[in-house]
Amino acid sequence: MSIPIKNMYYLLSYAWDRGKIAGWSKGVGNTGAGMSELLLCILEEALVNCQVLPRAYSFVSTQSIYPGIKGKVNLSQSLKKNLFTQGKAQVQFESLATDDLYLKILWSTWRKMEVKQHLPILPILSSFSGEYKGGLSPSLFAQAYRQYSQPQIRYLIRLCEWIYHKYLPIPGRRGISIQNFLLNSQEMPALFEAFIRNFYRRHATDYDFIGKEQLKWGNSQESENALLPRMETDVSLISPTRKIVVETKYYKEALQTHYRANSSKFHSNHLFQIFAYLSHAGVAKNGKPCEGLLIYPTVNFRLEESCFLAQHPIRVYTLDLNRPWEKVHAELLSWVA
Question: Residue 78 in contact with residue 63, Cβ under 8 Å?
């Protein structure tokens, strides 16, 4: 599977629910870029796009040889080292340093990212040189989540944590390629589901509710039977006239199988799942049956099929990600228009 790096940028931006989905960044080229470069680009833009980043400061005492006079001059050491004849002095001065944990995490993540092109330090980090001495760790990220409630800061922490767990380089290895990332059966299904959900949340403005929906098992008392599985949709879109249950499927077999070849058929377990959801989702507010929508990501292959199961219309579509993003955007909206 091959997805342009530009489309990967948008997919990850929606999946991680950025506060602002900007236009395609010119910081990463369309060719030759890997996951490290792409993640670094997203991290950079996340920093730049933050309107307000609260800062906490503390005074730090510094002793150094300074080209001139600053703070308190240590005469004995300056004379001993013959610094005055060089226009220098041994001085001690205090300066403001940030004491924010999230900035320490950002700095450490930025410094540890392995990239082919060394980019300059961002202005927001240029005045901060205090890389976290204890090193990044799961407990550090947990501490940061407890400390900050601002959505922008929590997004930055989440991005750094994801980079730390998945894509910080191992010594002797050149990071993770986009191809390996796309075939990651643990990461990509969840990311693709989040991308579809957050895309519709932002752009499907005709719907009153867009999000996960937990469905009830008929008249059964779920709280009294812990053996019943949780029945939760990937995405439900609800308006006064329609209710659509969306299921996303991203896995290796779906990417490799051509459904029309050799009389191939729909995946029965996927149809059974969405039919079960539709059977328990009730009806739309106007009394019409709920609709089902199965979405498979693919490239260079198109599938648009529909059927009825017990009065419920079900559509099965593939989303070709190897196209200009504008066409991907328009097609996703056309499915729920």
Answer: no
